[in-house]
From TrEMBL:
<dbReference type="InterPro" id="IPR041544">
    <property type="entry name" value="MotY_N"/>
</dbReference>
<feature type="domain" description="OmpA-like">
    <location>
        <begin position="169"/>
        <end position="285"/>
    </location>
</feature>
<dbReference type="InterPro" id="IPR006665">
    <property type="entry name" value="OmpA-like"/>
</dbReference>
<dbReference type="InterPro" id="IPR036737">
    <property type="entry name" value="OmpA-like_sf"/>
</dbReference>
<dbReference type="InterPro" id="IPR006664">
    <property type="entry name" value="OMP_bac"/>
</dbReference>
<feature type="signal peptide">
    <location>
        <begin position="1"/>
        <end position="20"/>
    </location>
</feature>
<dbReference type="Pfam" id="PF18393">
    <property type="entry name" value="MotY_N"/>
</dbReference>
<keyword id="KW-0732">Signal</keyword>
<dbReference type="InterPro" id="IPR050330">
    <property type="entry name" value="Bact_OuterMem_StrucFunc"/>
</dbReference>
<protein>
    <submittedName>
        <fullName>OmpA family protein</fullName>
    </submittedName>
</protein>
<keyword id="KW-0472">Membrane</keyword>
<dbReference type="Pfam" id="PF00691">
    <property type="entry name" value="OmpA"/>
</dbReference>
């Protein structure tokens, strides 16, 4: 065993120093709050006198975790994330989960899906994910911020239930969409129908979406008037399909532009393929 590994093991096995500043909800204070919708699942806990711990799974995205301090600059530099045994788990060894860095804007931590899921696993086991840092504010005092596992299980069951009802996409993923067409074609491919199905599902769920703009385009191959007619057929085909999937027709504005607005110069077969498109834009109120 290397000296570094031995030192890390020794750190993990030591109890929290009596000199450390510790923030962690007591058994009575440990309350998990659940916010649910078709657009996100949010599971959070207040860490008394420090801030808030938030697990959030947005539709179409992966899980993320954020530790949000009420006061910025409480923590500095890097910290160690350790799953410590809770008070009711005598003899359970701590688990090192890795080193994390302070998020410069919030002064807390923002973790991606891998560590966020590892924290949920630790909480499910009854352990306390803990952020351990050497400095609290500008002092030389170490600090630990723990996320309590007390009362976690029922909230976690609600969280899992919420995940099953999440939409497959979020607004950012469908607000601007371009579907492509082969040369001289306007019929919808299976892939295009699948994409339009997602757009229709989102629009029917999000009441804040008030308008949809469908704009047909072509490349510059062939006669201009024929290209304009082709872009019209493409736009109308997309509109018909959205309406057939339950999108109110009066929400949709259908337009067609022929070859007038290429996204890239029509200088190659690849570029022309990108210009043979229908753009779908959602607008919220």
């Amino acid at each position: 065993m290397t000296l570094r590994c031995f030192a890390l093991l020794l750190f993990l096995m030591l109890p929290v120093s009596v000199q450390a500043v510790v923030f962690r909800a007591s058994l009575d204070e440990s309350v998990w709050e659940m916010e649910t919708s078709r657009f996100f699942c949010r599971l959070s806990q207040t860490v008394p006198a420090f801030g808030r711990a938030v697990f959030e799974h947005e539709a179409g995205e992966t899980l993320k975790f954020e530790l949000k301090p009420t006061q910025k600059y409480q923590l500095e530099g890097d910290a160690r994330l350790v799953a410590r045994a809770s008070a009711w788990q005598p003899g359970v060894a701590p688990v090192d989960m890795g080193q994390v860095s302070i998020h410069t804007e919030s002064g807390g931590f923002v973790l991606g899906s891998e560590l966020a899921n590892a924290m949920l696993v630790a909480l499910h086991k009854g352990m306390t994910p803990t952020f351990a840092s050497d400095r609290w504010f500008d002092s030389d005092e170490p600090v630990e911020v723990g996320i309590s596992a007390a009362n976690f299980q029922s909230a976690y069951d609600d969280y899992l239930g919420c995940l099953t009802s999440l939409l497959p996409v979020n607004y950012r993923q469908v607000a601007r969409t371009a579907v492509l067409f082969p040369s001289a074609a306007w019929r919808l491919s299976d892939a295009t129908r699948e994409r339009l199905d997602l757009i229709a599902l989102y629009v029917k769920t999000d009441d804040s979406v008030k308008s949809i703009y469908v704009d047909g385009h072509s490349d510059n191959y062939g006669r201009r008037l024929l290209n304009r007619d082709l872009s019209k057929k493409r736009a109308e085909e997309v509109t018909r399909y959205l309406v057939s999937q339950g999108v109110p027709e009066d929400m949709i504005t259908t337009r067609y532009h022929g070859e007038r607005y290429p996204v890239v110069p029509n200088t190659s077969a690849e570029n022309r393929a990108r210009n043979r498109r229908v753009a779908i834009r959602l607008e919220r109120e």
